[in-house]
Amino acid sequence: MMNQDAGNPIWQDLSSDWLNWADRLAPQADKINRHLIDALELHGMADRVAQRCHNGLCVLDLASGVGEPAFGLAALLSSAFSDMPESAKGKPFPSGRVIASDIAPSMCAGLAGRAARAEIANLDVVAANMQSLPFADAMFHGVSCRFGIMFCQNPDQALRETRRVLAPGGRAAFMVWGPMAENPLFGAMDAIFKQVLGTGFEAAGLDLFGFSSAENSVARLINAGFDDVSLVTHTPCGRIPAAAPFWRPQMQMLFGAALRNATSGQGREIDDLMRASLSQHIEDTYFRVPMCFHVLSGRREMAV
Ligand SMILES: C[S@@+](CC[C@H](N)C(=O)[O-])C[C@H]1O[C@@H](n2cnc3c(N)ncnc32)[C@H](O)[C@@H]1O
């Protein structure tokens, strides 16, 4: 199913960069995705659903890009896979299907191609703007969204839409970036792209930090009608050999179009400045660069 609204053209332009890195970044993505998937509390939902229907759970992933966390969710909901999150140890993960969605047709096409190559049988792809979802009320037992809600033109409308398509008792979970000051990789990228190419996140039309305030984000979920709202902040710190240009994947996935138009000299200058800026985080020959994200979640109230 295709939706005519392709959204901000920047994502169309970046889909080749996202596809280029997707498989290599998947193991790292899995590590943080488990926080988002745990927040959906699918076990509780499965217990209730099992009493009424035998088709298993139906989970929607919004702004899936080329597959995160939709692939991980599909694996967990497939009886063919045995991985399970920490919280589910000792209890089989419920089975079901995932609908992966994104506003950018090229992201959806890339995602569908990856899913076909990986022979994922319980995942469908639907192009959709999360501000006006093409789904019936109460259709999903859970809704996930990883680093997507902040990029909508009207995130509050997208939150209300998310709640509308959730079944009573179902949870939505959003992974969102914490403040730029607590994400030095992004801080360096923003400053260096402004310096070398005259375009930072704002000029590129990328609002990464619209949900960085924990207090405001919780209030937005409550205003959209969610109950039992929670927010958990995570501050992992990688351990990457100091020789590795580890900033390149994120840099290309956010500024790929600008980099393609840059001269090779500008490309080298950006790399050198990124290394110099991030070297303050080198400890014992490893980059230890902290990052900060929140997992924000809320429930559609139970029917009375
Ligand atoms: C930072 S990427 C995140 C992709 C993926 N969830 C991940 O974490 O790898 C943001 C995605 O949001 C999508 N997006 C932006 N606005 C959207 C909207 N209104 N509805 C649906 N998707 C949207 C973009 O097309 C892009 O693929």
Automatic annotation (TrEMBL):
Domain (Methyltransferase type) ranges: 96-174
GO molecular function, one term: S-adenosylmethionine-dependent methyltransferase activity
Pfam families associated with the record: Methyltransf_11
Transmembrane region(s): none
Domain of life, per lineage: Bacteria
PANTHER family linked: 2-METHOXY-6-POLYPRENYL-1,4-BENZOQUINOL METHYLASE, MITOCHONDRIAL, METHYLTRANSFERASE
Protein name in UniProt: Methyltransferase type 11 domain-containing protein
Natural source organism: Thalassospira profundimaris
